[in-house]
Design brief:
- The chain is mainly α and 224 residues long.
- The protein has 7 helices and no strands.
- Helix 2 packs antiparallel against helix 3 and helix 4 packs antiparallel against helix 7.
- The radius of gyration is 19 Å and the shape is globular.
- It starts with 6 loop residues before the first helix and ends with a helix.
Length: 224
């Protein structure tokens, strides 16, 4: 179980308030990264390759900005009067959030290198649906994180919704893989198939890591 001190006391101290605000800014950039990935997916599925390049750049830039904020958070918690348990909470929260952005950027990068020529129309629709679901679950995580400093019950309820969304995405992910297997007859190069498979797995990781962040938030709120 994830350790935590009393969250209400934690949030009452100025240093911790500043760190939490930075964590929220960090997550806002992570959400921007996931939304950028969604735009890459949409452009890829409609064969707009110039737009794929444009949206990949915005995705890459957002992830890099998230990294910059992450480093600021880690620097701030490594100095100053923060209790070691509080420091552990912040580090786990930030690093787990960071995995969401990294997987979103990786998915976008693989699609940037892939070709949509092998795709069936049904697969394109499902791939876009997967991206939509990634945005939805990350938005819920962001809501839960922002509620930590406002309403602990809402934070817990929203984190519970994240868990349900992740389970639904697991099922959707299996359907998408089945459709990818059916694209085999249209495949031009095995390497293209592998790129798509890995991009889908990165998108699944976005959902998995979102559930992990939801667990961290829920632990902080419940044990607070």
């Amino acid at each position: 179980m994830f350790k935590t001190s009393n969250v209400l006391t934690w949030l009452s101290r100025n240093k911790e308030k500043q760190v939490l605000r930075l964590c929220e800014q960090h997550f806002d950039k992570i959400l921007e990264t996931v939304r950028g990935m969604k735009r890459v997916v949409d452009a890829f599925c409609t064969d707009e390759y110039t737009a794929v390049e444009t949206y990949y750049k915005t995705t890459f830039d957002a992830e890099r900005e998230a990294d910059d904020i992450k480093h600021r958070v880690l620097r701030d918690v490594s100095s100053g009067p923060i209790h070691p348990i509080d420091r552990e909470e912040v580090v786990r929260l930030v690093l787990t959030c960071d995995d969401i952005a990294e997987n979103a950027k990786s998915a976008a990068g693989k699609l940037r290198l892939a070709s949509s020529g092998m795709l069936t129309d049904e697969f394109r629709v499902y791939l876009q649906g997967m991206a939509d679901r990634c945005v939805e679950i990350v938005e819920h995580v962001g809501e839960a994180l922002h509620e930590l400093s406002k309403n602990l019950k809402v934070a817990i309820d929203t984190a519970n919704q994240v868990e349900i969304l992740e389970e639904n995405i697991d099922e959707y992910h299996l359907g998408l893989l089945k459709l990818l297997m059916n694209c085999d007859g249209h495949m031009q190069k095995f390497g293209q198939w592998i790129l798509l498979l890995n991009a889908i797995e990165n998108m699944e990781e976005v959902a998995d890591r979102s559930e992990d962040v939801g667990d961290v938030i829920r632990s902080i709120a419940i044990l607070g």
